[in-house]
From TrEMBL:
<dbReference type="GO" id="GO:0009307">
    <property type="term" value="P:DNA restriction-modification system"/>
</dbReference>
<keyword id="KW-0255">Endonuclease</keyword>
<dbReference type="GO" id="GO:0015666">
    <property type="term" value="F:restriction endodeoxyribonuclease activity"/>
</dbReference>
<dbReference type="Pfam" id="PF04471">
    <property type="entry name" value="Mrr_cat"/>
</dbReference>
<dbReference type="GO" id="GO:0003677">
    <property type="term" value="F:DNA binding"/>
</dbReference>
<protein>
    <submittedName>
        <fullName>Restriction endonuclease</fullName>
        <ecNumber>3.1.21.-</ecNumber>
    </submittedName>
</protein>
<keyword id="KW-0540">Nuclease</keyword>
<dbReference type="InterPro" id="IPR011856">
    <property type="entry name" value="tRNA_endonuc-like_dom_sf"/>
</dbReference>
<dbReference type="InterPro" id="IPR007560">
    <property type="entry name" value="Restrct_endonuc_IV_Mrr"/>
</dbReference>
<feature type="domain" description="Restriction endonuclease type IV Mrr">
    <location>
        <begin position="154"/>
        <end position="274"/>
    </location>
</feature>
<keyword id="KW-0378">Hydrolase</keyword>
<dbReference type="InterPro" id="IPR025745">
    <property type="entry name" value="Mrr-like_N_dom"/>
</dbReference>
<dbReference type="InterPro" id="IPR052906">
    <property type="entry name" value="Type_IV_Methyl-Rstrct_Enzyme"/>
</dbReference>
<dbReference type="Pfam" id="PF14338">
    <property type="entry name" value="Mrr_N"/>
</dbReference>
<dbReference type="InterPro" id="IPR011335">
    <property type="entry name" value="Restrct_endonuc-II-like"/>
</dbReference>
<feature type="domain" description="Restriction system protein Mrr-like N-terminal">
    <location>
        <begin position="4"/>
        <end position="88"/>
    </location>
</feature>
Length: 298
């Protein structure tokens, strides 16, 4: 059975017919293309998932991140011109190294996050103990999910982001006893996209601004100054400015040194909060780690 990167080329070769493939049919076609035996197709992971299906899934995920394939609809895939071109340049096969060198892949997955995981998961020769390996694996998965969340948020209408950030704040415990949050974005919003109660009685409120920006479109000091002006316009003393990109050093310095309390949340932190508080994500699998109960033997 090939490792997951060994499925990269077969997936592209199957998709090279130009058709739009449903996920299940594509998995079967890739297995046929590789000539997997019945025994190989029957192999399962401890979780019960098919080993071949898992590896095809990882290959599809990597190819999608590199924009070598696209998803025209839910659970369907088709090859892109970039995918055809890479396949033509590497007729001997596409490796994980080649995939990660694709600019679109590097833009999609923050390198600084993935580089924090240097030890291969499950390698018996690694110096990390099993719990550390599990935690490293979870961190890597979360980094990829975070990148996926930001990509999807940037693809949505700005109204969607405004509602999403309010959902995150409510999940964090803001919104009072009733989880009260109101989206007020749109034309004529006065520079404020939402408002949320800070305490159970609604005696104090937090005003929110959300900016759906591309990764390379930073939020600078002028945008924060405009938000502060909007807060003064509604008599507010505190607010939260959230973006899918990053803040400049000037923006952060300004927010720290003014009397109005402004919290800045960039795309990386927003994605981390969505994962932590279960907004737009679902638990795929739960692992239980046990240790000997010393009290039982005393």
């Amino acid at each position: 059975m090939p490792v997951w990167s060994g499925f990269l080329t077969p997936v592209l070769e199957v998709l090279s017919d130009g058709d739009t493939w449903k996920k299940r049919d594509l998995h079967e076609a890739v297995a046929d293309h590789l000539g997997l035996t019945a025994e190989q197709r029957a192999e399962t992971l401890p979780s019960g998932q098919g080993r071949a299906d898992n590896r095809v899934g990882w290959a599809l995920s990597g190819l999608y991140r590199a924009q070598l394939i696209v998803k025209p609809a839910r659970a369907t895939f088709t090859i892109t011109d970039a995918g055809r071109a890479l396949l033509a340049v590497h007729p001997a096969g596409i490796t994980e190294k080649i995939l990660k060198a694709v600019p679109a892949y590097q833009d999609y997955v923050p390198v600084r996050q993935l580089n924090t995981v240097t030890e291969p998961i499950g390698d018996p020769d690694t110096p990390a103990d099993p719990v550390e390996q599990i935690e490293a694996g979870v961190s890597r998965l979360h980094a990829e999910v975070a990148a996926d969340l930001l990509t999807r948020l940037r693809e949505q209408h700005p109204d969607f982001l405004e509602q999403s950030v309010l959902d995150v704040l409510v999940a964090m415990g803001y919104g009072g006893a009733e989880g009260r949050a109101t989206r007020i974005g749109g034309t004529g919003d006065g520079g404020v996209d939402g408002v949320i109660d800070q305490d159970p009685l609604g005696l104090d409120r937090i005003y929110v601004q959300a900016k759906r920006y591309a990764a390379d479109n930073t939020v600078g000091r002028p945008e924060i100054q405009a938000f502060v002006g909007a807060l003064h316009g509604v008599g507010a003393a505190r607010g939260v400015f959230i973006t899918t990109s990053v803040f400049t050093s000037g923006a952060r310095e300004y927010a720290q040194n003014i009397g109005t309390r402004i919290i800045l949340i960039d795309g990386r932190r927003l994605a981390a909060l969505m994962i932590r508080y279960g907004v737009a994500v679902q638990t795929r699998q739960t692992f239980t780690v046990v240790e000997v109960d010393e009290d039982y033997f005393e």
